[in-house]
Design brief:
445 residues, alpha+beta, 6-stranded mixed sheet, 10 helices
């Protein structure tokens, strides 16, 4: 497919998201990345052999990781998972440190704050001058109450489980790539920082500043998010989120209906107008993901709330969506002359991930990955895509760090009970990740 870059020539293309949905977008065309011609050194062949020898251990590790629930709000589960990762990094020779994430006030009828688990950072400071930043997020979208809680390996090699792609599988790839590199005596030479954050799935609201500060001190970013089968994500839409809280006036729905001001009715008007901000031609979409209001059938609802998602191709498009929602929130439709102070509307709108355009240095790494994948197995990377899904790669690249962020498993059904990958992809991507990491270390020697 054509990949998108922002130049004056404009055409219509197809955006393919992780969940398989397609959306028409308008963007500009550029020739796709082509696989690089690559050969493997004796050291790289040895790393490949190491991965093959440890195939079952890698699968067992994935089962362990997937079986630990780490929904973003499951602080205890994330704490346990972070302890596991911290032990793994220290065994590899990393110095580790935990960083608390500030809580975020939530604009809802109930009020309160969202708390986040601590983040983990590991460092190795070897002689290589190539400063490498690696990242994976510990959290998944599956809460502790979800029925989808463990890994299943089917007879045909299909892997199914919560986070198998996004991104427990990517973390297992990362850890075993590090071990393969260590087995060849190369890891101690690396200048590497690894960040495991706890809140990526809700926008990295608590870890954003940590990621930005780390990004500025490195030369290249390697992130192990999933990519669609046979593809490597080259660019991404920007992401935003918004919350609305409507306060009305409660009244008996039968005896005193005329004394009420319905928060639900005002929210309904707001949602209709907000959804109209979707512009497929511009590549901008708005989705009211959740909404709720009222407490009883027979009471005029006194409070209603909505949680809204935004996706956009350019910073200008993101600002247009943000301004549009704020403008809609600034006025009201519902009124009661006896109670003119109602309804009131509060809004919170943030563009939490910038759009991630193609980058020349990242394209070179994608070409290398494509070339390596042809040598390493039966699931080669044959093309690139632009994704509507967000990652922390967008955040760190916005700080000036060239970042390839699709180095994890091939993934399908991401964020659903159909989330799946394959054993072959797990093993092939581990080999590829080890070779690419070793090459980055050696390029600075």
């Amino acid at each position: 497919m054509n990949i998108l870059r922002y130049t004056p020539a404009v055409l219509s293309a197809t955006l393919i998201g992780f969940c398989g949905a397609t959306f028409p977008v308008t963007a500009t065309a550029q020739a796709d990345v082509q696989p690089a011609e690559v050969t493997l050194s004796d050291t790289e062949q040895a790393m490949i052999a190491w991965v093959d020898e440890n195939r079952q251990a890698i699968l067992d590790e994935l089962e362990q990781h997937v079986g630990m629930n780490t929904g973003t709000e499951n602080i205890a589960g994330l704490d346990a998972y972070r302890d596991l990762l911290q032990a793994d990094l220290e065994q590899l020779g990393f110095e580790t440190e935990t960083f608390p994430a500030p809580s975020v006030e939530i604009l809802t009828c109930a009020g309160g704050e969202m708390a986040f688990a601590d983040n983990l950072v590991g460092t190795i400071r070897g002689d290589s001058t190539r400063r490498i930043f690696m990242n994976g997020h510990m959290d998944t979208v599956f809460p502790a109450s979800d029925e989808f809680q463990s890994l299943t390996i089917e007879e045909d090699g299909t892997l199914k489980g919560p986070g198998v792609g996004d991104m427990k599988g990517g973390i297992v790839v990362m850890l075993n790539a590090l071990r393969a590199v260590q087995a060849q005596g190369l890891l101690a030479d690396g200048h590497i920082t690894i960040a495991f954050n706890s809140d990526e799935e809700i926008g990295s609201l608590g870890s954003r500043e940590l990621l930005l500060s780390l990004a500025k001190d490195h030369d290249i970013g390697l992130i192990y998010e999933p990519s669609p089968p046979g593809k490597m994500t080259r660019s991404r839409k920007g992401l935003g989120q918004a919350r609305l809280k409507i306060t009305g006036r409660e009244a008996h729905a039968g005896a005193n209906h005329e004394q009420g001001v319905s928060a639900n009715l005002e929210l309904a008007h707001k949602v209709i107008e907000i959804e109209k901000l979707t512009d497929y031609e511009a590549g901008s979409t708005v989705n009211t993901g959740t909404m709720s209001g009222g407490e009883k059938r027979n009471t005029i609802p006194g409070c209603a709330e909505a949680y809204i998602d935004m996706r956009y191709l350019t910073a200008e498009s993101g600002e247009k969506l943000k301004n549009g929602i704020e403008e809609i929130a600034a006025s009201t439709v519902v009124s009661n002359p006896d109670y003119p102070e109602f309804p009131t509307v509060e809004s919170w709108v943030v563009l939490h991930r910038p759009a991630k355009p193609p980058h020349e240095e990242v394209d070179a790494l994608i070409a290398q990955a494509m070339g390596l994948s042809k040598l390493l197995g039966d699931e080669p990377i044959t093309e690139t895509n632009v994704s509507g899904g967000g990652t922390d790669g967008s955040i760190v690249q916005s700080a000036g760090l060239p970042t390839i962020d699709g180095l994890g498993l091939n993934g399908t059904g991401i964020h659903s009970s159909r989330e799946a990958s394959t054993v072959d992809t797990l093993i092939e991507r581990t080999k590829m990740a080890a070779i690419m990491l070793a090459r980055q270390i050696q390029s600075g020697q």
